[in-house]
Amino acid sequence: MNDETKNAPRASARLPRGLSDRGPAEIAATERMLAEIRQSYELYGFEAVETPFIEFTDALGKFLPDLDRPNEGVFSFRDEDESWLSLRYDLTAPLARYVAENFDKLPKPYRSYRAGTVFRNEKPGPGRFRQFMQFDADTVGAASIAADAEMCMMAADTLEQLGIPRGGYVIKVNNRKVLDGVLEAIGLGGEANAGRRLTVLRAIDKLDRLGVHGVRQLLGPGRKDESGDFTKGAGLDASQAEFVVGLIDPEKNAEDHVASIDIRLADSRIGQEGRAELEQIAELIAKAGYDDGRIRIDPSVVRGLEYYTGPVFEADLTFEVPGEDGKPIRFGSVGGGGRYDGLVGRFRGENVPATGFSIGVSRLYAALKAVGSPIVSAKPEPGPVVVLALDKDQLPRYQSFVAALRAENIRAELYLGQSGMNAQLKYADKRGSICAVIQGSNEREKGEVAIRDLVLGAELAASTKDRADYLELRAKAQFAVPEAVLVAAVREVLDRHSS
Amino acid sequence: MNDETKNAPRASARLPRGLSDRGPAEIAATERMLAEIRQSYELYGFEAVETPFIEFTDALGKFLPDLDRPNEGVFSFRDEDESWLSLRYDLTAPLARYVAENFDKLPKPYRSYRAGTVFRNEKPGPGRFRQFMQFDADTVGAASIAADAEMCMMAADTLEQLGIPRGGYVIKVNNRKVLDGVLEAIGLGGEANAGRRLTVLRAIDKLDRLGVHGVRQLLGPGRKDESGDFTKGAGLDASQAEFVVGLIDPEKNAEDHVASIDIRLADSRIGQEGRAELEQIAELIAKAGYDDGRIRIDPSVVRGLEYYTGPVFEADLTFEVPGEDGKPIRFGSVGGGGRYDGLVGRFRGENVPATGFSIGVSRLYAALKAVGSPIVSAKPEPGPVVVLALDKDQLPRYQSFVAALRAENIRAELYLGQSGMNAQLKYADKRGSICAVIQGSNEREKGEVAIRDLVLGAELAASTKDRADYLELRAKAQFAVPEAVLVAAVREVLDRHSS
Questions:
Q1: Of B108, B98, B44, B55, nearest to A23 (Cα)?
Q2: B380 CB within 8 Å of a chain A CB
Q3: How confident is residue A94, by pLDDT bands cut at 50, 70 and 90?
Q4: Residue A345: which H helix or E strand, with range?
Q5: Closest by CA position to A42, among listed A157, A170, A171, A164
Q6: What is the ipTM of this complex?
Q7: Is A147 in Cβ contact with B416 (below 8 Å)?
């Protein structure tokens, strides 16, 4: 496109894996989603705060799930003074740093929300990205289980606000203290067993996908998947594994689960604390009427992040979508959260109670597309009015047409390429424009401009001359007007096609 | 705030230098700014596109100004397969990658805009951050100087749209080809002199700050600043330096500058190309009426980025603000851009004409604060209605009050901390709330709630009992209503203070 000779390219035009570009439709749809979530969070009294993308590595800590090697999962680099910096992997760890840094001046409880991009240095896969967006709300400084119950109710309200119908989702609630009691009861308490505890939790977390049999294998010696890959298990014996399985039945209702904890974890202080919290949250949810299927206790919910200390929640979409192999699968998780009383304490030396909920914006965007939510499916804005540039020495005049349209708040542009009239009209079609403005020397000499209705023009091109209203259509598809009424004529054409 | 004993903190709650958090007022103001800029760019027919934060290092190239060491200025890290990745340092280099990657399917010219955070691994200073936001528009595939003229006019329109009054800014235009002609004329042409050319351009770029004398020093042996630090110069002799200085006079008008180029660069092909482009852009701007001080030719404009190949522009705010030493200084640059015909060509082996403009959102935010633009100075939204939690066993009932308010789209929250009534009211004040809802056992037994007007309450507290309307004020500042009319009573209080 230039007079220079063609050379070998010096760089390759591609993105690193797990990253992607976004076009206008996805950007506009995401903006609408974010506006709805923001409105819902604000209605609950949360206020905006934002932290930067980069933090000191040790301020973020290492709480990511599914990491076999240390330092994996996070993009890190050294600052000039050799200290380690990282891109944030979630919005909770940076919030904990923010609250600790501004502790004395913040109202307590401190209720805040933020949307932001986070980064995971993981192996990317289908639907699994290394950069994605989350939208979090957190209440810091509230030990009350009512704060956790509120997170669950807000999650439900927000999903409905976004167009997920009631019955199309469920907010599942569990408690890490119950799981801690289970682990203690099978002899996995104490610092020395931290690694094995994590392996057990990860096994439970796979119940949804692998079923009870698969989880039993992962609790025991290990499991070979369809591809032949072997995942080493937690090494529990059969009775230990059975004990765990008995306390993570996702179908068990809240009362039965509580009763079962009372029997099996009768001697566990932490287990009984968890039971009491489960009972409280179930009561608050029932009294608020959210026990109609919107929110329910699910003993199998774990949530991967290591920093949770009490209630944990997961927002699951229950409708089915075609899976990778074409078979229908449940859409699954679009968000989650829980209580993290120790996270702010890392900076302060004393724990600060805190709970939060995070929506996976990119996952939810895919879900809203699947249910045809109008928020993401609105038809795109039409393109701008294109003023053709037929005579290069008339650019200032064409530019004045464009300026007149813009002054009346009509999106408009001058064609700025080098091509001829047909290519310019094709360009306008490609932009999704409704109207083009044309002035060749004929029109100019008469002080006129031709207004072309590109929608009717396309219709005309597809029709035949036998058509009864052919002449009428042709007259409407392109007509000449005096320059002075350019704006009114363009608006007439735009109004024809506005809905 | 928890029953655990206090321990030594395990991490330090602070941000790396050059990074900062943002509170609700700044976030809301920035959103309003971005909306105005977006509207202005869309009116000009640009459409949204976004690229990720991370790119292959070699896709971004090295075009940053003021870098004495290679690789400085950019945050980089290795991917698992050992390839180098970087955080983007601007939005233009990633756009060039995007256009090259999607070249065949994009309309041409391709007109797009994007707002996004960029990162510079530089020494931070006052007002100089390592993470900041830019808002760019670019036209790729248009060789016409009309595309550059349009960028300048859009920059002017956008600043006015944002509340910078006409006369409070100027868009300065120059041409890199003229500067290239100057460099060639003093014998600095060719690959071997690339480093010295850059030193000369950097010296010119400092004309605004250092004046002609300072620039002469930097063109010659070098310059010692007030602190005694010595900056090595370009090593030009006196006649070379004089030749340069004669062609960068910022006060010279377009005609005189063009005449002077015609004489001094009569034999320079590139210089004459630059002159022709300057004449064209001046004509387009004059015919569109923007030569009334909104846009003008300024022979001293350089723009730091190395990839510019033709017209360059800079948006300067001309009003004065107090400088670091208290003395008034011109606010200076809030954006800039130019033609970068080679940037897409790095990926395609043939040049693709392109031009763009970038607004420094964070700089402009500071400027809008300085001129008191309503876009950034709007008073903050009031806080949510706070329902006090006086009896812990009544949480579900309090929760139902909150739910009733939210159902009528009134921002509301339940107080979730552990403190008593006075502290709860103080919390509501700290949140900027207008109204609190109170129900102790007295009110509950009567089936009532007390509605407290926190604005009148503060007025009451500051007044004396002698005040004629004291009793009336007290009755309005807190009153009891039946639970059934809670929402109407709250709305009445909110309406009192809405403006």
A1: B98
A2: no
A3: very high
A4: helix A345-348
A5: A157
A6: 0.92
A7: yes
